Amino acid sequence: MRDGEDGGEDSEPGRLEIVGDVMHDAWLGIPELHAGGGILVVLATALAVQVLARRVVLPLALRVAQRSRTSWDDVLAKHGVLARLVPIAPVVVIGRGVGLIVGLDAGLVQFVERMALAVIVLVAVRAFGALLTAVNEIYTRHPQALGRPIKGYLQGLKVLAYIGAAIVVIATLLDQSPWYLLSGLGAMTAILLLIFRDTLLSFVAGIQLTTNDLIRVGDWLEMPQFDADGDVVDISLNTVKVQNWDATITVIPTHKFLENSFKNWRGMFEAGGRRIKRAINIDVSTVRFLTPEEIERMSRVVVLREYMAAKTREVEAHNRAAVPADAADLPVNGRRLTNLGTFRAYIEAYLRAHPRIHQERIRIVRQLHPTPEGVPLEIYVFTRDTAWVAYEGIQADIFDHVLAVAPEFGLRVFQAPAGSDLARLAGDARPAAR
């Protein structure tokens, strides 16, 4: 063989070179890249693609999103969905380019390709998680989101996505099929159920709470077991956050709402009336029949005129028919008007004429079982205003009036003896404090 016949000088440029039995394709116009130069070219290309995607493509896409009339693309940009996809470009270049480098060990090439695929899966699942977060924010802008939150479902989907990505990454690194790993997952079911017990219970509880419309963001919630009394500010997969009236935050596991009782005040707000249920105790010793003079005076009370006239006619008619004339002078014979009954009728008439009392809801003034503290006279009505401050003001005004007007009926509200009362009974001549 002549000199030069087996060398590269007589070879035709651009032809493929045979190294052993392996044929290597040309890449980027360079016929044959040896290992070191090929690695540098691949890394330089990946870096250039990264810079191009980060400095040019991404800002351009964000600028387009800002100028568009729709708002959903702004939310995607806000949560970095596009930014999280940028690393995929250089990883693809490395994963595809490493196979074109001449002289690299085949095992090393496969390892780098598997690593690149694993990184792509991780980057993609992070972008998918950001996408789900953006979807939740977009959904919360619609009115129906207040009663039908989907945050728990999206968080559950995100968990499944991360679990699936982990399985794919492990299978890729081990060069096995994902179904091979899933087939062995059954033996780990008990362990997984133990690890994700609260998450699974909360996920099921979240579905039931949402489906049955038991809790919404913004509801006033009371759950004494967890010292929770305030507004629901967030419903997630695992927890429900309640901001108490003292501005503290109580975090309650979602599944606890199916295990414990709680009070939701939403129905009160939707009904448009807030209940007043409070009693005052009347001193039993002050309960008596009304005298004719008191009946005449009570008849001049505007809200009692109809009641007094009707009740007087009813009592007189009954007594004429049932009580003999020679026994009519005894109060025990026949029927008589009492100051307590008249006082109760006055409160009913006063509430009926009150402009801030809900007249379409139940309205009762009733006597309860007598106690050592007197006869409880309970007011059971609903206010038109459900706001807390307004409600408390209405309730206070009503009972201020009731307490002040009771002596007009000869009644005294029961109160346990104070120190001044005991001192007066003991004959203490010292002047009372002013």
From TrEMBL:
Main subcellular location of this protein, as a coarse class: membrane
Stored Gene3D superfamilies: 2.30.30.60
Annotated TM spans: 33-53, 81-103, 115-135, 156-173, 179-196
Keyword Transmembrane helix: yes
Compartments where found: Membrane
Taxonomy, superkingdom: Bacteria
Name of the protein described by the UniProt record: Mechanosensitive ion channel family protein
Protein source organism: Nannocystis pusilla
